[in-house]
Design a protein that fits this description.
single chain, about 350 residues, alpha+beta, D-amino Acid Aminotransferase, Chain A, domain 1, D-amino Acid Aminotransferase, Chain A, domain 2, 2 domains, 9-stranded mixed beta sheet, 6 helices, about 20% helix, about 30% strand, binds pyridoxal-5'-phosphate, BCAT_family, branched-chain amino acid biosynthesis, aminotransferase
């Protein structure tokens, strides 16, 4: 596609931009239709849709990357498809097959190819797949109809001047309940995080660390990202809990820590009273890959890991390895990259 768009790729942020095409598929009478690309970015839905009243909706976030050779590639979209299916099952919504999910993403990227930022800018095309319960319904029960949509926006490099550490506070609120929806990517978890985020931001922190909702003794999430720490004896450690959103970035880093960096890597409890075990720490997710954690404010003092201003060497190596794979500069493990042709 040769269409030119007038975008300053080096100064893009993370804001909504209407791109040319999005994908919509409708579920009715027990099945999904074939789905199609459309130009209209407005949805017209019943005022009685379950997505509006009972939070029956879920979503995903993934990116398309432009390589040095000018190719476009998706990073592990099968994992997003699987997580979306889990979210759907948790909210009694019809599942989208992995094949349909990946096909929809590819169609949207191809149709909006001119919005995929050039290699070297660090910018990417962010894809937002989502499913919402729609149709006429007022009782608390699953919707009679559903929409599966995928839209995309070009987004800027998360770090304009290289990755830099930030500080976090401990949240006074929970984002999820012990056997609630924390492991599903559903809007309600994000609605619950807006207020604690606002409090942390007002207090001068980047975001807040959520502790486990049952005992408030263990680290779960860092804002909308997963936590990892590097122990003093060089282990990559990340918390395990049924109320954490299983981050695709986190599982990728677990693999890379073991297979590319030769570190021991484990998922286990991380106690907030035991921050001293780590010499480096970070938050990981699709948006930034890794945000190094300078410090965590806990019990009236800032616990600093590596440094408040410098990035630790293992954190940097993990970041360079994963982002190198995403942009096609480093060899990916089998099956991680899907080329958009
Ligand atoms: C609550 C939460 N945790 C973790 C993550 C990181 O997940 P991923 O690495 O799949 O982007 C996200 C972002 O999707 C998130 O919203």
């Amino acid at each position: 596609m040769s269409k030119e768009v007038n975008i300053d790729w080096n100064n893009l942020g993370f804001s909504y931009i209407k791109t040319d095409f999005r994908y919509v598929s409708k579920w009715k009478d027990g099945q999904w239709d074939d789905g199609a690309l459309v130009e209209d970015n407005m949805l017209s839905i019943s005022e009685a849709s379950t997505a509006l009243h009972y939070g029956q909706q879920c979503f995903e976030g993934l990116k398309a990357y432009r390589t040095k050779e000018g190719k476009i590639q998706l990073f592990r979209p099968d994992q997003n498809a699987k997580r979306l299916a889990n979210s759907c099952q948790r909210l009694l919504m019809p599942v989208i097959s992995e094949e349909k999910f990946i096909d929809a993403c590819i169609q949207v990227v191809k149709a909006n190819e001119h919005y995929v930022p050039p290699y070297g800018t660090g910018a990417t095309l962010y894809l937002r797949p989502f499913i919402i319960g729609v149709g006429d319904n007022i009782g608390v029960k699953p919707a009679p109809e559903y929409l599966f949509c995928v839209f995309c926006i070009p987004v800027g490099a998360y770090y304009k001047g290289g990755i830099t550490p930030v500080n976090y506070a401990i949240a006074d609120y929970d984002r999820a309940a012990p056997y609630g929806t924390g492991a599903a990517k559903v809007g309600g978890n994000y609605a619950a995080s807006l207020y604690p985020h606002e409090l942390a931001a007002k207090a001068g922190f980047a975001d807040c660390v959520y502790l486990d909702p049952a005992t408030h003794t263990k680290i779960e999430e860092v804002g909308a990202a997963n936590f990892f720490g590097i122990t003093k004896d060089n282990k990559f450690v990340t918390p395990y809990s049924p109320s954490i959103l299983p981050s695709i970035t986190k599982y990728s880093l677990l693999h890379l820590a073991k297979e590319y960096l030769g570190l021991e890597a484990e998922e286990r409890d991380v106690f907030i009273d035991n921050l001293d075990e780590f010499k480096e720490a970070g938050a990981c997710g699709t948006a930034a890959v890794i945000t190094p954690i300078g410090g965590i404010f806990y019990k009236d003092k800032l616990h600093v890991f590596h440094s408040e201003t410098e990035v630790g060497p293992i954190t940097r190596e993990l970041y360079d390895t994963l982002s190198g794979i995403q942009f096609g500069d480093k060899k990916a493990p089998e099956g991680w990259i899907v080329e958009v042709k």
